[in-house]
Design goal:
By secondary structure, the protein is an alpha/beta fold. Helices cover 27% and strands 28% of the residues.
Length: 225
């Protein structure tokens, strides 16, 4: 990893509006490309928001503007790949800003590695997460528990990432056709466990496992660069 010395800096900015997170990622991507910072992992939550990826079908947005306003849900177009998705409180959103050079310049492998991280996180709680052929994300017998949508910009620097439903209000997913898949349920760790897991614990496991899967040393950092 150029300019990173094998380090993954983990930052937890709390709840961040989607627009702010997008601007932050753009800044971090530029800094990572220039070698000012090592690889980064942002772990955060968003207020209620629907995002439209570059492959979105407008028909998969179910809630009209009036209903979205009533529910307090923003709408944003996103530069990530994939279809429409929802983010909100109780959902762990992870944005890895990684330099995939020189030996990870493979988008398919990167997506599978992110799935592996989430599968291992779920395993820490006794939940069996699986892949589903033809789809990106992580699934359980009860439905999809994590979505993935990424962007890899020039210089093989990643942004956007994954969303893991920890204690998400699943009713908000009724405002969309999640990831364009109409015949599969959405679930959460809260639904699958007798006790709701603490978000900070899920973040801790996610950071540690991200380091192991990507062979990076974790460094927790306060604040933002």
């Amino acid at each position: 990893m150029s300019g990173g010395d094998g380090v993954l800096e983990v930052r937890r900015p709390g709840q961040l509006a989607y627009g702010e997170a997008t601007e932050l990622q753009s800044r971090l991507v530029a800094m990572r490309r220039s070698g000012e910072i090592p690889d980064q992992l942002l772990l955060l939550e968003h207020p209620h928001v629907i995002t439209m990826g570059t492959g979105s079908d407008p028909g998969h947005l179910v809630a009209d503007e009036t209903l979205r306003e009533q529910m307090g849900v923003e709408l944003h177009e996103s530069t990530r790949g994939g279809d429409v998705t929802y983010h909100g409180p109780g959902q762990l959103v992870g944005y890895p800003i990684l330099d995939l050079k020189p030996d990870r310049k493979d988008l398919h492998r990167y997506l599978r590695d992110l799935e592996e991280v989430l599968i291992r996180v779920l395993d820490e709680y006794g939940i069996e997460g699986t892949r589903s052929e033809g789809y990106t994300g992580v699934w359980t017998d009860a439905g999809k528990v994590a979505a993935i949508g990424v962007r890899v910009s020039s210089g093989w620097i990643t942004s956007h990432g994954f969303a893991l439903n920890v204690a998400t209000d699943l009713g908000y997913f009724e405002t969309i056709v999640p990831c364009g898949i109409s015949d599969r349920n959405v679930t959460s760790m809260e639904e699958l466990l007798p006790q709701t897991p603490a978000m900070h614990d899920v973040m801790h496991h996610t950071a540690q496992i991200m380091g192991r899967v990507f062979d990076l040393k974790i460094r927790e950092r306060e604040g933002l660069p």
